Amino acid sequence: MLEIKNLHVKLADEDTEILKGVSLAVPKGQVHAIMGPNGSGKSTLAYVLAGREDYEVTKGDILWNGESVLEMEPDERAAKGVFLAFQYPMEIPGVATMTFLRTAVNALRKKRGLAEFTTPEFLKRVRAEAAALGVSDEMLKRPLNVGFSGGEKKRMEILQMAMLEPSLCVMDETDSGLDIDAVRIVSEGVNRLRSKDRAMLVITHYQRLLTYIVPDKVHVMAGGAIQKSGGKELALELEETGYTEFSPKTPAHA
Amino acid sequence: MTVAVTRTKAEQAYSESFEAVAQKLPGGRAVAEARKAAIGAFAGLGFPHRRIEEWKYTDLRSTLKEALPPAIADATRVSVADLEAALGGLAELDAHRVVFVNGTHRPALSSAGREKGLEIGPLAFALDRSAGDASIRPSAPGQEAMIALNTAFMTDGALVHVAKGVRLAKPLLLIFVRAGKEPRLLTTRNSLTIGSGAEATIIEAHVALPGAGAGQANALSEIAVGDDAGVVHVKCTLEGAGTSHVAGWLATLGAKARYRAFHLTAGTALVRNNLLATFRGEDAKLDISGCFLGRDAEHIDTTLVVDHAVPGCESRELFKGVLAGKARGVFQGKVIVRPDAQKTDGKQMAQVLMLSEDAEFDSKPELEIYADDVVCGHGSTAAELDRNLLFYMRARGVPLEVARRLLIESFVGEALDKVEDQRLREALSAMTVGRLSGLVA
Asked: In Å, how far are A45, B302, B367 from B248, measured between CA atoms?
């Protein structure tokens, strides 16, 4: 279970508070969605869960399976099962996708006390996952994300998610910049990973994604805090009414 | 007004040391005369120092404080196993080997086979027969003093001639080994002539055996690439932690020649690689790239002059440096486009990754363009490892040290990718990666 308790966060080198007391619990086996306008703090929450050092937690705690992750480095959190699918996946010139995947998978397996994959085992798994996500062999040979389209990058994120076998999946605007076909492919990939041992947190601006990845619960975030929580029907309500009621002082911006 | 030039102790000592060893140096009377004239010229010039523009960042007058005894007819014992270990990845290459230990040719360690159209031998033999003409002291602006010193003291090196139209089956591996505890001056010279339409790969490796004493090296390579010839020319400068290596590398390119050069420099206290490439015929292409890795207080200077003297030629330079500790990197790249050299296409880039706050990188690109229809560009960057990339990789479970290593390897990889031959590239990559571990740790 993921428990976020009264989380207050600011940028490490500024005083402005971005998260102002976020509380949230996602049990294993469930998918929760966080929806909210731009600037509500959704992405900050995603980064803080993964351990980005630019942020400082001033109050509160994040527990994963009962253990605080706040003092853990990003790679230690990954070893504990935390995975963040980035809104803007990084391009890594000069590092072949296959090399990167194998390095990450085997580093995690080692830390989790599992045997590293042999080359044939690894290739078999990558090929199976890649085929399901429509990731070509040619993409796997190229440097990670370099020259990939927006949709290819997002598929690559889900491929990594599948390969790294996380128990907590955080997806930050995985649908942004995708056409409807790409949203469907990515969603199918995510749905395949749904299981009773996994908790998922889907962050999105639009309801669209949630027709494909049907959440157990929806939370509305605005002004750095959860404003409202409800069932999957809350997403549809928001589609009608928009976020205006949650951020009266902030004019909507693109 | 005439100013009396005061010579440093080392400068004076080299002039005196020449008197003492001149008799033992190879070459007939004509060569001896040329050597004498050269040491005279050096006495007048002294070591280059920071008030000479080309030597602004690398002041040999203040760094080469001591004159070391020149190694002549050295007989230090070196086993094949020692040699292989010192060569690292290059030992794997199937090549014609010519080995020099402390500046003296070692036939027993060499394995230069026969190939039709290939003449390869020690320069010392040729000096004995030489008439000592002007070619013995090539001219290169800014390099006069060091070339003079090279002419005065050179003991040996490779003399290579590849006949017209011949494609060599195997690369030539010219190995210069520093061995033995005593600090010494090693002075070597290679003279390489590639006939028109010929193709050759030539690798020069300057390495040190473990336990080799601190020392100085003055190395000069001249290469003439004939019309339509294709040459891959590699230099590995890995002379050892206590050593100063100052080198000239003079290339001339004939019409439609293709010249690809690569420099790997690491693990040497002070390096100045001074490259001059001159286009002599139209429509030739050159690509000079390299990696330099500096740690501790190492000083690595790559100074490059590309002289577009004729029209229609293309030049590409890409140098990648990684600097740790208090290392200092210097890159000076000058591209000259002469008035006649229309349709010149020149691009130059030097990029450095700074792994420490105390490291320093001085970059001085210069374009001297006298023609109007040309495309020329240069760039230079110095940066730290990208924190966003590190976070991304770590969030995927890659430990920090591994993430750093992958990013550094990919950074230098871009230069290594310029080496087209797969086996050679893999050998150079392995050597680079091996040296990188010492920087990251």
From this structure: 57, 10, 21
Q: Is residue A251 part of a domain?
A: no
Q: Rounded to a whole number, what is the distance in Å from the CA of A143 to chain B's nearest CA?
A: 10
Beta strands, E only, B106-214: 118-122, 158-162, 172-178, 185-194, 199-208
Q: Give the helix/strand (H/E) hosting A228.
A: strand A225-230
The answer, for B279 touching chain A at a CB cutoff of 8 Å, is no
Contact: B399, A51; criterion CB under 8 Å: no
- CB-based contact A104 B410, cutoff 8 Å: no
Q: Which one of A74, A94, A99 has the shortest CB-CB distance to B391?
A: A74
Query: What does the pLDDT profile of chain B (441 residues) look like in tens digits?
Result: 455 567 899 999 999 999 999 999 999 889 999 999 999 999 999 999 999 999 999 999 999 999 999 999 999 999 999 999 999 999 999 999 999 999 999 999 999 788 999 999 999 988 888 776 767 888 899 999 999 999 999 999 999 999 999 999 999 999 999 999 999 999 999 999 999 999 999 999 999 999 898 899 999 999 999 999 999 999 999 998 899 999 999 999 999 999 999 999 999 999 999 999 999 999 999 999 999 999 999 999 999 999 999 999 999 999 999 999 999 999 999 999 999 999 999 999 999 999 999 999 999 999 999 999 999 999 999 999 999 999 999 999 999 999 999 999 999 999 999 999 999 999 999 999 999 988 876
Q: What is the ipTM of this complex?
A: 0.95
Judge whether A254 lies within some domain.
no
* Domain span at A42: 2-246
Choose among A198, A124, A196: nearest CA to A161: A198
Category of B295 on φ-ψ map: left (φ > 0), alpha (ψ -120 to 50) or beta: beta
CA distance linking residue A22 with residue A31, whole number of Å: 18
The total of structural domains in chain A comes to 1
A28: exposed, middle or buried (Cβ count in 10 Å: 0-12, 13-18, 19+): middle
| B245 strand-pairing partners | B217, B271
Q: Which residues of B390-419 are buried (b: 16+ CB within 10 A; e: fewer)?
A: bbbbbbbbbbeebbbbbbbbbbbbbbbebb
Q: How far apart are the CA of B409 and the nearest CA of chain A, in angstroms?
A: 8
Q: Which residues of B touch A160 (CB under 8 A)?
A: 396
Amino acid found at B116? K
CA atoms within 13 A on the CB side of A250: 16
Furthest C-alpha separation in chain A = 57
**Domain layout of chain B by residue ranges:** 9-384
Residue A46 falls inside a structural domain? yes
Q: How many CA atoms lie within 13 A of B403 on its CB side?
A: 20
Q: Does A46 contact B at CB distance below 8 Å?
A: no
For residues A150 and A185, give the distance between their C-alpha atoms in angstroms, rounded to a whole number: 13
Q: Taking CB atoms and an 8 Å limit, are A93 and B398 in contact across chains?
A: no
Q: Is B396 on the interface with A (CB under 8 A)?
A: yes
Amino acid at B17: S
- Is A92's CB within 8 Å of B395's CB? no
What is the CATH classification number for the domain harbouring A171?
A: 3.40.50.300
Residue whose tokens read 């290459």:
B93
A51 contacts on B by Cβ (under 8 Å): 394-395
Euclidean distance between CA atoms A131 and A137, whole angstroms = 9
Does the beta carbon of A98 lie under 8 angstroms from any beta carbon of chain B?
A: no
Task: Tell me whether residue A132 is in a domain.
Answer: yes
pTM: predicted TM-score of the whole model, two decimal places: 0.89
Q: Which residue of A has its CA nearest to B409?
A: A94
Extract the tokens encoding A163: 């390969």
